[in-house]
User: What shape does this take?
Amino acid sequence: MAIETQPERAHGAGGSGHASRRRRPWWMRPAIHTAIIGAVIGYLIGHLLGNFLASSDVATEYPNIPLSDTSDWPIVLGYAFAVVGWLAGLGVFNDLLRQVAGRPVRVATEEEEASEGVSRYFRFTLDHKVVGIQYLIGMIIYFCTAGLLAMAIRAELLSPTYHLFTSQVYTEIVGEHGTMMMMLMTSVIVGPFGNYLVPLMIGSKRVAFPRIEALSFWITPIAFLILLSSFMLGGFPFGWTGYAPLSIQSTAGADAYAVAFGLMGFSVILAGFNIIVTVICYRAPGMRWSRVPMFVWAMVTTSFLFVLAGPVLIAGMYMMVTDRTAQTAFFIDTLGGSSYLYQNVFWFFGHPEVYILALPGFGIVSEILPVFCRKPLFGYKVAAAGLIGVTLLSFFVWQHHLFMSGINPDMRPVFMLTTELISIPTGFIYLVAMGTLWKAKIRFTVPMLFTLGMYFNFLIGGISGVLLSDVPANVTAHGSFFVMAHFHYTIMGGLIFAFMGGCYYWLPKMMGIKLNQTLGKIHFWTMFVFFNSTFLPLFAVGMAGQPRRVFEYARNLETLNDWVSISAFFLGGSILIFVINFVYSTVIARVREEGNPWRSRGLEWQVSSPPPPGNFAHVPVVLSGPYEYGTPGAPPVADLNPPAGVVSAAFAGTQTARAEA
Amino acid sequence: MAAEAPPTSTPQHAAGPSGPNHGLRIFLIWLPLALAADLIIWFAWGPHMPPGAMSSSASNQQFDITVMAVMAAPVVLLVLVYFLYALVVWRAKPDDDTDGPAIHGNTRIQATWITLTSVIVLSLFVFGTVELYAANGSGGGEGASPLQVPGGPRLQVQVIGQQWKFTYRYPQYGGFETTQLVLPTNTWVQFNVTSIDVIHSFWAYQLGVKADANPSVNNVAFTKIDHTGTFDVRCAELCGLWHGAMTNVGLALSPAAFQTWATTTRARLRDVTAALPPYSLTYDPAFIPQMSKQMVAGGFDGAQGFFYPPTDPYQP
Assistant: This one.
C-alpha cells in the first residue's frame, strides 16, 4: 500500500543518476525494431527446438510425440520463444536483470520520456499517457484489420452458394475476424482510455505498476501478429470459440489461435491488475468512492472481470495446446476427457468476456451523458450498483451457451434465471440515462450523438438477449444469425459506439487537438444508419433459419443477405471516415485544443491538454463529485494547488504516512 | 408495463412549477403505441412467427417467441418514446449556456423501476420454465436422460453427425441407416443425437428441433409433427470446412406412408445394415476409420452416403 504523495521522489534515485548519461543512437536502444529482431530470433530457436523434440531420435524415447501432428511442436515452441524474444528485444527484462545483478535500475522521468518525442511511442515507455496513446493506435489498427475481414465475410455472403472463397479460406476468415475482435477488443476502452484517464480522473500522478501496464500493451502487437500468422499455416476452421475436438484435429493454424488468445489473457490480467490497484490505492485525498467517476467504476469492474476470467482462458488455451502437442486428451471423450470440459472452461471465461465488452461502454456513456445534459448523473449509486451487479452475475450465466448441448439439462432453468436477472442491473443503466435526460439541457455534440446511438443499439441488443435466454425460444435462435445480430448489437453497437464517443470526447484531452466536428457528425450518421441497416435484418435472417458461420444459405434469404452485405460495405466506409478524420485532425490540421471544450467538471479536464508530465503539479484535493452540474453553490471539483500540508494530513491515518513519519 | 416508472411523478426540484406534465404526455404517447404494437404482434405477426407450426415443439416456440415479443415491445417503445421526447423537448436552445436542474435521484422512481423490472424478469423466468417442461423440452437437446418424457409409443431416430453429413438410423426397424430424414406425423419422435467426430448441432428448422451432436454423448430431443411436408435440416455448430454445406431436406409422411417407406427401405438396405456397426447410443470415433476400410473392401463405396464419396472434401 505504497501511497506516494510525491511520486517524483520515487523516480529520484534513477532520474538524477543518468541525466548526464550519454545516450546511445536510437537504433542501438531497445524499441520496436529490436523487438522484431528478437521475435524472429526467438521463433527460429523455438522452431529448431520443436523440430528436435519431434525428430525421430527423441521420439523413440517419448513415444507419444510422433502420434501427434508433428508440426505442432515447432510451431508452438516457436511462438513461445518469439514472445520471449519480442519482449527481450523491447527491453522488458532489462530492469529485472539489472536488479538481479545488483545494479541500479534506470528509470527515466516522464519529462525525459517526453523529450524523446515520437520515438517513445515505439518503446517500452512507462508513462501511462504514452501507453494510452499506444493502445489507442493499436486498437484502431486491430479493429480495422478485423473489420476488413468482416467485409470479406459479407462479400462471400452476397451469394447463397460459395463463389468468392473456397470453404477453407472462408472459415479461416470467419475465425480470424471473430477471434481478433473478441480477443483484442477486450482492451479497446480499458487500454486507451482506462490507462490514460483513470489516474487523471482519480487525481493520481501515476499508475500503480507502470511496467505491468506497459507490458500489457506490448503483448497485444505480438498476439495480433501471431493470430494473423495463422493465415500462413492454413488458418483455423473453428471460429472464435475453438470447440474441441474440432480444434484438436485442426492443422497448425490452430496453434496460432491458442497461443495468441492465451497471450491476450496474460495481457488483460496485467492491465486489470494495474487498474484495480491504481484505483484502490492511488485516489487523491477527497476522492471518495461516492465521488469516483462512473467511467472509473466501469474500469474497476471490468478489471475485476479481467483478472478473474483471464486465468480461465489461459487454462483452456493451455489445455488445448497440450492436447494438440503432447496428446493429453483433456477434451477427447474416448480417452477419458470431455468435449464439454472445453465448452465449460471456454464459456466460464467467455461470458464474463462479453461483459468485458459491455461495461466499459456503460462507463463512457454514463460519463458523457451528464456533461451534455448539464445535469448531475441521476442515481449515481444505482449506476454503480448496476455495474457491480453485472460484474457479479456475469460469472453465473455461462451455461446458457450450452442450452442445446445436452449438458445438465435440468440446470437450464437456473441459467435461464441468472441470465434474465442480469437484465436488472443492465436496466439500471437505462434508468440512470432516462433520469439524467429528464428536463435536461441537451446539447447534440458528436460525443453525445454516439452516446445516444449506443443507448439505442444496446437497447435492441439487450432485449434480443432476453429472448435468447428463454430456453424454448432459444431452441430456434441458438447458433443462428439471430445470436450473431444480438452480440453485434451489444458489442459493436454498444462498445464500439461508446469507444467512438470516447474518442471524440477525450481525444482533445489526450492529444491536445480538435477532431473535425463536421466529419464527426457525418461519421456518426453514416455509422448509425448503416450499422442498423446491417444488423437489424440479421435478426430476421437468423430467425428464418440461417445458422452462423455458413457460406451457403437458403436461396430465399438472398435478398436480405445482399441488403446486409451492401450495408456492411457502407458501414466499413463510415469507419473509413473516422480514420480519415483521425488522421486529418491529428496529423494534418492539428487545430490546438487546450482548455475544457465541453465545460466538463471531470477532474481530467481541470489540467491542460494534453496533461503535463506527472499529470498534476501537486496532488489535488477533491472537493466534490464530478457531476454537480447546475447544483447551486457546488464547490469546484478539486483544489489543484492545495495548501502545504493538506495532502500529507489527508494520509495521516495510513500506514505509509506513519512509516514516512 | 414499466410505464409509470420514470415519467408520471415529477421530481420536486423541477424548474417550472406550472410547466407541462411531461410524464403524462410521454405516457399518453407511449400507451397507444404499445397497445397497437402488442395487438399487431399478437394477432397479425404471431401466427407467422418463426419457426412455424409444423410440429408440437415448433408451435411451442412460436408461442414463446410471440409472448416474448409482446413483453418486449412496450419496454422498447417506452425507452424509445422517452428518449425521443427528451431529445425533442429538452434540447438546449443554441444560445442557452445554463445548466439543467440539479436532480441527483429520486428514491421512489428508482424503487419502482427496480421492482417492475424484477417482476418482469421473474415472471419471464417462471413462464420459460413452465413452457420448457410442459413441452417436453420444446425440441431442445435434453441430454441422455431427460426429465420429461412424452408418454405412449415413440419412434426412435438416431441422428449421427459426422463431417459433413447427418445420417439417420431407425433402431425399431433393424437399425438401417439413411441420409434422408423421414418421419411420421402424429407420433412422438425421440431423436437420439450423437456424433462420431466433432461437435455438430442437429437443427430441423421447421420442426423446432435443435440438439448438439457431441461425440460419445447421446443427446435426446422430442417432437411430434402435426403436418406432412418437407423441412430443412442444417448443422448449427461450426464443425469444420464444409459446415456451411451440411444441409439436407427431411420429409414428414403420414404414419401409414412412413410405415411403408420404413419397411421397404429396411429390406432394400439389408446388406448394408449388416455391414454397419451394431446400433448403439454412441459410437467410438476410433472405430470408424477401421469400419470404413471394411466398407470400401466390401464394395460399399459410399454411394448411398454411408461414408464419404471419393469426391467429398477431405480435411487434412
Summary: Chain A touches chain B through 97 residues (CB under 8 Å).
